Amino acid sequence: MGDLDGKVALVTGAASGIGRATSELLAERGARVCVVDRDTAGGGAVADAIGGIFVAADCGDTTDVDAAFARCEADLGGVDIAYLNAGIAIGVADITALDDETYHRIQRVNVDGVVYGARAAVRAMKRRGGGAIVATSSLAGIIAFPTDPVYDGGKHFVVGFVRSLAPTLEPLGITINTVNPGITDTNIIGRDAKDALDRVGFPVMPASQIAHAVLALVTSGVTGQCWVCQAGREPVPYTFRDVPGPRTGGTTSWPPEDAQ
Ligand SMILES: NC(=O)c1ccc[n+]([C@@H]2O[C@H](COP(=O)([O-])OP(=O)(O)OC[C@H]3O[C@@H](n4cnc5c(N)ncnc54)[C@H](O)[C@@H]3O)[C@@H](O)[C@H]2O)c1
What we know:
Elements: E1 8-12, H1 17-28, E2 32-37, H2 40-50, E3 53-56, H3 62-76, E4 81-84, H4 100-128, E5 131-136, H5 149-169, E6 174-181, H6 191-199, H7 207-220, E7 226-229, E8 236-237
Parallel strand pairs: 1-2, 1-4, 2-3, 4-5, 5-6, 6-7
Antiparallel strand pairs: 7-8
The structure holds nicotinamide-adenine-dinucleotide (NAD).
Nicotinamide-adenine-dinucleotide (NAD) binds near residues 138 and 189.
């Protein structure tokens, strides 16, 4: 018996890394999992290992995403948990070296994929009477990341999108949050970077640590939060600073009088 008995989870980017670890944990806790990835061999193997189903899909393609959610509903009876996690990095720091193909390749999965996934999830969860959505942003969704500014911008998009959707989804019984991992030991960081981090003793998290943050988010009932995950720490909801409000009549101090 697990805390997710009777629940159905759809996980994108589930063939490896964080998505795979999360699929395994959700299944271990009793959920039936729909493993979604463009990697057919890897995704099929994960689904077989956890007794789930696999749907091959390109998360940057709206038809594929809708079809994956439809398969999940048809085969597993609905969608209670959607973990929108598929993503790539491009590592292009020099904006003059960014070609259009590379730009669109990352935007379509890291940005479009989250929008298409959230839309399909909300449609399915309305039919179910509620649910929990989590999207994988990144620490790069909160801080600057000069080695991959397009990746950073996409992850900031995920933060703003999720926080903005949360109030509209709350009355429907649907929560939506992000996980914002620091450096995690998966294929995306590459072997060379991992070796370099190991050499300087920089702590790199196992993917299972992010999986536990996702599990905590989908069972907590919170919404509109962005949970920072760092090595050796509990996940921490990021606190966004309030912005200065406008000044009201008579108290304006800007622009200076001599500039008016
Ligand atoms: N590993 C890190 O340090 C780190 C840190 C912060 C955020 N993230 C984010 O975590 C998420 C998962 O990445 P990971 O670290 O597990 O890397 P990963 O490369 O191990 O896994 C990514 C998965 O997404 C799949 N995928 C990529 N493009 C796809 C597409 N168009 N359609 C369907 N599937 C697609 C891949 O096949 C792969 O299985 C990504 O969104 C990534 O940006 C990773």
